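Whiteboard transcription, Tuesday session. T.W. wrote the structure tokens on the left side:
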């Protein structure tokens, strides 16, 4: 294992712990990262709650969602969700699937989740909603096969986030710190937008504000600062 891969897998464990600590992930949900030397492979934990994930839980997968060596461990049923986003988006290096309680109301009502403050510009605008019924009728509501995963990837398009009707959300970005940033700001924006709507009609970011601010926040300096902060809050300060 190369030094870069060793460090990346350590960050994958930390990303799981951060998102659990920040209330984005709970007993369910998962984080994946693309192999830095094999674009046709990625890593995600075995089926385990994110706050408990360790290095020994990490499994390598193909872009068909098949574990290279399952090591006798049970993978997440939705590992294929990450696989097909990586397959559809060569630019994406990290993905998250979550069921954040603050975000879930926007999956069950016809109110778009839209950036209402500058940090949430990374959502890219109104977040699209994928409804599995449109193509597949009634299902178990998991994205546990290639056709559903491909459909979800199409709904994500070239953006950073997509909502799953009555289920949760998936986020994608060019690095683990970037996708963590998107997920946490999605949570923050959902909470703020809900409070603002209770007071009146929110003022949303314009298209230009969203684009320009997102480009700035996805830069190295803001992400390094946020990642260091969330690492410390999750108990990884000084590591």
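and on the right, the sequence the group agreed on:
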């Amino acid at each position: 294992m190369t030094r870069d891969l060793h460090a990346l897998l350590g960050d994958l464990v930390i990303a799981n712990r951060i998102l659990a600590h920040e209330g984005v992930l709970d007993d369910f949900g998962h984080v994946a990262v693309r192999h830095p030397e094999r674009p046709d492979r990625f890593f995600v934990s075995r089926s385990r709650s994110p706050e408990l994930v360790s290095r020994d839980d990490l499994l390598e997968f193909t872009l068909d969602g098949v574990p290279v060596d399952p090591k006798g461990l049970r993978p997440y049923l939705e590992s294929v969700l990450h696989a097909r986003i990586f397959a559809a988006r060569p630019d994406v290096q990290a993905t998250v699937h979550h069921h954040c309680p603050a975000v879930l109301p926007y999956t069950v009502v016809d109110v778009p989740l839209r950036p209402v403050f500058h940090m949430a510009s990374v959502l890219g605008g109104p977040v699209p909603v994928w409804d599995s019924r449109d193509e597949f009728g009634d299902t178990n509501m998991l994205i546990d096969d290639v056709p559903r995963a491909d459909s979800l990837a199409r709904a994500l398009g070239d953006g950073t986030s997509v909502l799953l009707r009555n289920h949760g959300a998936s986020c994608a970005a060019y690095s683990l710190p970037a996708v963590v940033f998107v997920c946490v700001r999605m949570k923050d924006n959902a909470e703020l937008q809900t409070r603002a709507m209770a007071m009146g009609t929110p003022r949303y970011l314009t298209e230009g504000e969203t684009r320009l601010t997102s480009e700035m926040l996805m830069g190295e300096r803001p992400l390094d600062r946020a990642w260091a902060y969330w690492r410390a809050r999750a108990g990884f300060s000084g590591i």
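Someone added at the bottom: The beta strands are 30-34, 41-45, 58-62, 94-98, 129-130, 161-164, 168-173.
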